[in-house]
Amino acid sequence: MKLTEHTRFSGCGAKLGPGVLDKALCGLSQPAYPGLVADFAGGEDAGVFRLAPGLALVQTVDFFPPIVDDPRLFGRIAAANALSDVYAMGGRPVTALALVCHPLKALGLEPLRAMLEGGLEALVEAGCALLGGHSVEDAEPKLGYAVTGLVDPDRAWRNNTLEPGCALLLTKPLGTGLVNMAVRAGLASPEAVEASQASMATLNRAAAEVLAAFPVKACTDVTGFGLAGHAAEMAAGPRCGVVLHADALPFLPGVAEYAAMGLVPEGTYRNREGRGHVLAGTAPEGLLDLVFDPQTSGGLLAAVPEAAAGDALAALRAAGVTAWAVGEAGGEPGSVRLA
Ligand SMILES: Nc1ncnc2c1ncn2[C@@H]1O[C@H](COP(=O)(O)OP(=O)(O)OP(=O)(O)O)[C@@H](O)[C@H]1O
Ligand SMILES: [Mg+2]
Predict the structure, then answer these.
(1) Which Gene Ontology molecular-function terms are recorded (predicted)?
(2) C-beta of 233 in contact with ligand 1 (< 6 A)
(3) Could you give the dihedral angle defined by the CA atoms of residues 58, 64, 66 and 68, in that order, rounded to the nearest 10 degrees?
(4) Which ligand 1 atom is at minimum distance from the Cα of 44?
(5) Over the stretch 230-254, which tens digit does the pLDDT of each residue have?
(6) Looking at ligand 1, which residue's alpha carbon is closest to its atom 4?
(7) What distance, in Å, lies between the first and last C-alpha atoms of the chain?
(8) What is the complex's ipTM, to 2 decimals?
(9) pTM to 2 decimals?
């Protein structure tokens, strides 16, 4: 029985759209706790809470329905995706809790065991201890992790602290949502499937560890809101917007073709509706479905000063991390331009 036959949405494509989330969260306010460094109000990848001088918790939770049929691979992807929010803050993951929704009657126990094994494999690779979890019976399978990391709060990478003069580096190719739609339609090439699965299963650990040696000015990971949606979070800072170089964007094999065939996930439309305005008409229609494609377990999008960008790219590649310069800081704050 195929895992993905039990779900309407896949991976990060299952998220509520950014517009809906804005409306749900706006107006929520809490006391200004002395230790609170970053919470949901800033739309950060993870929250940050200071415990002592130079030491803060970085906490995040992500869970979603299967994006692949192999349960072990799905577990690995779910863990890699959840860990990624800690890496995107410059943190080191230390503990995790599993969140499980499982249709026991339809699927039986074996796929759940395999999912949890795959997830644990990724956590071990991250040096992150699995402390426990919570599991409920549900109509659709879902798996994810709440991950806690540690970070120096003064050195945590924020997503809205972009400075002029920075280059933007991306550490994974784009298009996992489109490839998944092509898989569901039976039209994906083996080459596209293999590249997409390998990318989703890769931890952002090496990328984050290499980047930590460089003066990172802002960082996020590219996930459910797509490259343009997460670039919009980076452009939301006070100093400048984001310019993406359309010709430099790395795509998984076949995705332009899948987009042209209309194999576009629903999440893309939610992203375009919620964040399309930031592009202010600068993107050709054909490219919109690519830059708003929801990514599952996507790469880091990091801003480093132009002068350090070449060295950072070389260091990433030397560590076996795929990496591309995809844009720069520029334009009005709040704007994302495709040039
Ligand atoms: N129900 C909620 N209550 C409070 N904050 C929320 C809730 N849902 C999302 N958030 C916050 O909204 C922001 C955006 O959430 P989102 O899940 O899109 O971020 P992400 O985890 O970086 O992305 P992804 O899930 O695609 O990896 C984060 O700061 C998150 O903590
Ligand atoms: Mg999330």
Answers:
(1) ATP binding; magnesium ion binding; selenide, water dikinase activity
(2) no
(3) -50
(4) 29
(5) 999 999 999 999 999 999 999 999 9
(6) 40
(7) 45
(8) 0.92
(9) 0.95
